[in-house]
Amino acid sequence: MPDSLPLSRPSVPPPLDFMGGATDKSLFPFDVWRRCVNHALRAQARSPGMYRDVAGEQELRLAISRYLAFNRAVSSNWDDVIVTQGAQHALDLMARITLRPGEVAALEDPGYPPAHACFTATGARVVPVPVDGQGLIVSKLPDKARLVYVTPSHQFPLGMPMSLERRVELLEWAQKRGAVIIEDDYDCEYRFEGRPMEPLKSLDRAGLVAYVGTFSKTIFPELRVGYVVPPASLHGPLLKARRITDCHGCTLTQSALAAFMLNGDFAKHLRRMHGIYAARRAMLLDHLHGELARWFEPIVPTAGIHLAARLRAPLTEQALVGAARAASIGLYGLAPFHRRARPQPGLIFGYGSIAVEHIDAALTKLAGILPRVGR
């Protein structure tokens, strides 16, 4: 396993940093969160000292199921939800119960490196599958794939959504082969254009899709809370796998998050952040379609807190990232996310943790150095 994965934050991040996957903690309502934690502490002080439900606190599972039904059209009972220590933990548990050493797991190429590392660690044979403008190319899936990992709402890292036709094709493919699909819906709370397409989980009639989500992009990654709504046939095995790994997560955090959601504070926070991220996205696109258009071809996503942009010749990723770093601008290339597919030079611009005025300043400065880099 590598010592670090792409998009790992440098030990000393540059002042103007387009790091992907990061959120702006300065805008989180910590005063409200403190009240939720205090409420959870009082409840915990009154409870007996014993191990809790391996699937997570009931109040949080109820809050998540209500949230998914309202926001993502994913219908589930509260006891269908299993709370995990982030989405990566959910991927690890799914890999443990579905993959034997030597079996085939398929994932998008380019794709999410931690998922590749997770499946590789089980001893599975991981097969990268190319994507196009409609998402994962189902016809390129290996016939013997036992598990397929996809990010259909906001393909990571390129950003385009999987088309409805491709979603139906993937479900039909998996049903014929008895394969399991992991649908990672990691940041689609923030939608800026168009009507959201039905998640694979909502279209699934055969019990094949495990729907994975996280609070890392809506609150902050240090919270370490995610969840999975698995097929009914995998619910029991997942609980057994969870029981022998860490038994259950932090009940204090789970109880506080349940209060935060059930009181309406989570929805209020999402509405506020949606407007802020929309302004950052608009500023980024203004520059990419403006003075930077001769250098970049943005792939405009409908949702999420990052976007990708391809580089126009003669720019190269390595030269541009290095020159930007020298100018105190943190840029990140797309090449590390590719496996077999030939990488087309490009960048991933995260705007979750960089203020709109800093985006403006960084890209104005970048426009000034690009002519020298592109010689």
Automatic annotation (TrEMBL):
| Residue intervals of the Aminotransferase class I/classII large domain | 30-314
Name the PANTHER family on file.
HTH-TYPE TRANSCRIPTIONAL REGULATORY PROTEIN GABR
Gene3D superfamilies named among the record's database cross-references: Type I PLP-dependent aspartate aminotransferase-like (Major domain) (3.40.640.10)
According to the UniProt entry, its GO molecular function terms are:
pyridoxal phosphate binding; transaminase activity
Keywords for the protein's UniProt record, in alphabetical order: Aminotransferase, Transferase
Source superkingdom: Bacteria
Name of this protein: Transcriptional regulator, GntR family with aminotransferase domain
User: Which InterPro entries does the protein's record reference?
Assistant: Aminotransferase_I/II_large (IPR004839), HTH_trans_reg/aminotransferase (IPR051446), PyrdxlP-dep_Trfase (IPR015424), PyrdxlP-dep_Trfase_major (IPR015421)
